[in-house]
Structure formats: C-alpha cells, structure tokens
C-alpha cells in the first residue's frame, strides 16, 4: 500500500479562525484523515510527529523575528505550503500597524514596552518563503479548503474561482447594492463568501481580499459619486486585508 501523504497545520499571528474552519469540516475531515496522515495539528491534537511533511497548511502572519525564522523552517520541512486566510495571505487586520509607528503603538498599548519584541510590520507568509497556493478569506471557506486539499492529493491545481463577489451576487440573483446607493467593495473582492453581505442589503467588507486585477482606482471614483469621502474609502480598504498589494490605489 502506498504511503499516505503527511499533513501539518501551523499557526502564526492569527485568531485561529481558519484552523477552526478545517475542524468545522466534521464528516469531511474524517475522509481527509483517511486520505492523509495528520502528522501535526496542535489545534486538534497534542500528538505531533516530526517532519518532513508533504503538505503544510499555514495560518497567520509574520509579526516577530522568531516567527520569521520559524516559517523558514516550516518551508524547509514541507514539500508544499498553502497559506490560509487573510493573515497568512495579506498580513491580516494586524497589518494596520504597517501604516503607523510601531513604537508609538507599543507605548500606547503596553505598560512596559521594553518587554515587547516585535517587527515593525505584519507581513504575509509569501513575503518570507515561496508559497504553492494562497486560500483567501476571513475566515476561509471550508468548501474551498477541502477542494485545495483534494487537489494536492490528486496532484492538480486547486479549482478555486478568482473572480469578484459581483459574480456571486449575479449567480444568486442579488440586486447590486451599489445601484441602490450602498458603497460596496464587491467589485474588487475575491469570491468565496457567496455574497453574504450584499444578500442582506449591506456592502461587501472585503473579507476575501483582492480579486485578480482589481481596479481599486475606478471603485474609489464610484464611492465618491455615492458621497463617500476618500478617507472613508481608504478606511474601508484597511480592514481584514489591509496590506494586500491588490488593494493599494494606483
């Protein structure tokens, strides 16, 4: 019998939500466990087997020098690395620090700043090591996650759509909220949520990060036409995927 591929799941600076999405797979997770040897997944089990690993799923951003070294070790032990969620793919909400002085932030938050060791920025995993696939979301879509795992088991590219949330609105028959005067990030946001917020009359918050070739500048003009100030638009972009390159205005 062929050896089962070995899976490891890693956490860096994050809320654990993407790892919980894997645990939420429930019955599907049992099938994953039959197809893969879950060698290391501290969120689920204290039994941790040493590497090397065939597939590593990584949650969280790099915010300390220690984690910068640790992710390089993860990459050395892993045949394939897949990043999960906004933190791992775009620095996460903690990347808001990238737009301010880290010394001022630390002084404002901690009574003894001298004990804090941190980097000035929060950066995605791909800024430190090569990544084989990025799965976006805050948190990720568990159906997309299962597709990614299945794809690596089959030795193929994951079939995860790269289009915008607008396509999902059209597929579910949801009327465009921007036509109704509601500012929305859907035109520049990666699909994956099934257009949940627009379905309830609310603008997209950009949880899934930038779609491919996002035209942020054109969307800014549309927001201004709806009465939103440039400052409000910038604040909307600086949320779950604050430091994502695709959400920077040209």
What's the level 1 CATH class of the largest domain? Alpha Beta
Rg, alpha carbons: 19 Å
| Number of separate helices | 10
Q: Count of DSSP E strands?
A: 5
| Mean pLDDT score | 93
What are the low-pLDDT stretches, counting only 5+ consecutive residues below 50?
A: none
Output the strand order for the largest sheet.
Answer: 2-1-3-4-5
- SS content category: alpha/beta
- Count of folded domains: 2
**Considering DSSP H and I runs of 4 or more, what fraction of the residues is helical?**
25-40%
Q: CA-to-CA gap between the ends?
A: 54 Å
Structural description of this entry:
- Helices cover 34% and strands 12% of the residues.
- It folds into 2 domains: 5-154, NADH:ubiquinone oxidoreductase-like, 20kDa subunit (Rossmann fold, 3-Layer(aba) Sandwich); 165-247, no CATH class.
- It is globular, with a radius of gyration of 19 Å.
- The mean pLDDT is 93.
- The longest helix has 13 residues, at 65-77.
- It has 250 residues and is an alpha/beta fold.
Brief overview:
With 250 residues, this protein is α/β, with parallel strands linked by helices. It has 10 helices and 5 strands.
Primary descriptors:
globular; five-stranded parallel beta sheet; Rossmann fold; 34% helix; alpha/beta; 2 domains; 250 residues
Fold topology:
Layout: E1 5-11, H1 17-23, H2 27-35, E2 36-40, E3 53-59, H3 65-77, E4 78-84, H4 85-90, H5 102-109, E5 133-135, H6 142-154, H7 165-172, H8 196-199, H9 216-225, H10 230-237
Parallel strand pairs: 1-2, 1-3, 3-4, 4-5
């Amino acid at each position: 019998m062929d050896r089962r591929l070995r899976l490891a799941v890693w956490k860096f600076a994050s809320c654990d939500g993407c790892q919980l999405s894997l645990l939420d797979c429930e019955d599907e997770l049992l099938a994953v466990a039959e197809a893969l040897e879950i060698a290391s997944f501290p969120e689920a089990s204290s039994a941790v087997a040493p590497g090397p690993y065939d597939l590593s799923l990584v949650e969280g951003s790099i915010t300390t020098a220690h984690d910068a070294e640790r992710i390089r070790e993860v990459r050395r032990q892993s045949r394939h690395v897949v990043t999960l969620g906004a933190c791992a793919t775009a620095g996460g909400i903690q990347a808001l620090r990238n737009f301010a002085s880290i010394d001022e932030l630390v002084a404002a938050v901690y009574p003894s700043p001298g004990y804090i060791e941190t980097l000035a920025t929060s950066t995605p995993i791909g800024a430190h090591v090569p990544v084989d696939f990025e799965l976006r979301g805050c948190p990720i879509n568990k159906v997309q996650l299962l597709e990614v795992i299945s794809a690596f088991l089959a030795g193929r590219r994951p079939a995860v759509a790269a289009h915008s949330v607008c396509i999902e609105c059209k597929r579910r028959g949801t009327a465009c909220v921007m036509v109704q005067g509601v500012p929305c990030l859907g035109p520049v946001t990666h699909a994956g949520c099934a257009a949940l917020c627009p379905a309830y009359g609310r603008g997209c918050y950009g949880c899934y990060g930038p779609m491919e070739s996002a035209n942020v500048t054109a969307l800014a003009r549309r927001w201004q036409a709806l009465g939103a100030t440039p400052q409000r638009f910038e604040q909307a972009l600086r949320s779950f995927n604050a430091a994502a390159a695709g959400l920077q205005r040209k």
